[in-house]
Specification:
Layout (H helix, E strand, L loop, with lengths): L16 H13 L6 H14 L5 E3 L2 H11 L7 E4 L6 H8 L3 E4 L11 H10 L3 E5 L10 H11 L2 E6 L6 E2 L2 E2 L6 E5 L12 E5 L2 H11 L7 H5 L21 H12 L1 H19 L5 E2 L12 E5 L8 H10 L15 H7 L7 H9 E4 L7 H17 L11
Parallel strand pairs: 2-3, 2-4, 4-5, 5-8
Antiparallel strand pairs: 1-9, 6-7, 8-9, 10-11, 11-12
The structure holds pyridoxal-5'-phosphate (PLP).
């Protein structure tokens, strides 16, 4: 690693000898692209979350695009989502010629607000899909969102880029809506470097996505090249995309999936330590907690009234102490493209703006040592003290 040894990275993938051997086996197999390993990864992932089937894709962005395409989203339609997300959640609607209607997050959280959603749905006809995002692995209020979607006749696509595994009483996040999309990007809890998975309840939607994932072919390359009886003939039934996940990456995913339970436990234990260390401190506000939280992110909020510096300077000071940090998210409606397209001012979504202005994402990854967690805690407490915050002992005074 090029970083100095006491630098605590913001995120680090947990890749072991199992992943290395699995990739070597694919390299030596003579079949590198989508084939046996990808089919096995899909089956194993589907079994894990209790879905009838799963489709592996080369990113969650591709998966979200396929999901909306399969729902028939196009010009004249609206897709509702929160501005508190990564850009592709909304961009895929624009790829299909649809417009995005943003809806604020909850008053205290990072999740789509069902009350604001109800108002958006009441005021706008032509909403074809809602994309709630389980930001950081904290589950959205799916019961209320699904009920509103049912009443207004729209589909729900869960953005589970951060939400594997989030096991709720009703089932895993990603299996509750009409479709669910996961990311295996390099910083995600289980990773394939780049990659994703899509679920759909409806078999017709799955078939459509399978076709569109591979150029609109009537069957996969795997079927055409690998059997003695294979025919070279194929037809193209749609103008599809190239969104398949190669076996080289699926092989990594299969090994990561076996470790997902352990990864989750490790993240939970880091989150518990942060909650304990920062709880009750006058400079900090804790992120909302949920028993099913996947803790992909630990987003600490600052209390500006207790500090002489704002979030940006606090970030820089903490980073200068050797702590890798990030901010999730810069709300989309404050970015050039989205603010211009829809004439949105930052104050249009006050909850999203409040969260953004006070949030810092701390390092949280499986494999992080107890000493590294303590380094983060000490550095954050020290930064708060240097920025004029009274210590935790004075919190109740
Ligand atoms: C909430 C959210 N949705 C979607 C994506 C897109 O994921 P991918 O990089 O796999 O395309 C990301 C990426 O980080 C994300 O954070």
């Amino acid at each position: 690693m090029s970083q100095s040894s006491d630098f605590v990275p913001f995120a680090l993938p947990s890749i072991g000898p199992e992943e290395e051997e699995a990739v070597l086996a694919v390299l030596r197999s003579g079949w590198l692209t989508t084939g046996k390993a990808t089919l096995a990864f899909e089956a194993e992932f589907a079994a894990y979350v209790g879905a009838p089937a799963a489709l592996a894709v080369n990113s969650a962005t591709s998966g979200l695009h396929l999901a909306l395409e399969a729902l028939g989203v196009g010009p004249g339609d609206f897709v509702v989502t929160s501005p508190y997300t990564f850009v592709s959640t909304a961009a895929v609607a624009r790829h299909l010629g649809a417009e995005v209607l943003f809806c604020d997050v909850t008053p205290a959280g990072y999740d789509l607000d069902p009350e604001a959603l109800e108002a958006v749905l009441r005021m706008n006809k032509g909403v074809k899909a809602i994309i709630p995002i389980h930001v950081g692995g904290y589950p959205c209020r799916m019961g209320e969102i699904l009920e509103l979607a049912r009443r207004h006749g729209c589909a729900v696509v869960e953005d589970c880029a951060h939400a594997f595994p989030v096991r709720l009483e009703e089932g895993f996040a990603g299996t509750l809506g009409d479709l669910g999309v996961y990311s295996f990007y390099a910083t995600k809890t289980i990773t394939t470097g780049e990659g994703g998975m899509v679920l759909a309840r409806d078999e017709e939607l799955r078939k459509r996505m399978a076709t569109m994932r591979s150029h609109g072919f009537d069957r996969g390359a795997w079927d055409r090249y690998t059997s003695k009886k294979a025919s070279w003939r194929y037809d193209v039934v749609e103008a599809g995309y190239k969104y398949n996940l190669p076996d080289l990456l699926a092989a990594i995913g299969r090994e990561q999936l076996k470790k997902a339970g352990r990864f989750l436990e490790e993240r939970r234990s880091i989150a518990s330590r942060y909650l304990e260390a920062f709880g009750g401190h006058p400079a900090f506000e804790l992120p909302p907690v949920h028993p099913a939280h996947a803790w992909h992110l630990f987003s600490l909020r600052l209390r500006p009234e207790a500090l002489r510096v704002g979030r940006d300077e606090f970030f820089e000071r903490l980073q200068a102490k050797g702590i890798g940090l990030s901010v999730h998210f810069i709300p989309l409606h404050t970015m050039a493209y989205w603010s211009k397209r829809y004439g949105l001012r930052p104050e249009a979504f006050p909850n999203a703006l409040d969260r953004f202005s006070r949030t810092i994402s701390l390092p949280i990854w499986q494999g992080m040592s107890a000493a590294q967690v303590e380094r983060v805690v000490e550095a954050a407490l020290e930064t708060a003290a240097e920025a004029g915050a009274p210590g935790p002992a004075a919190a109740g005074a």
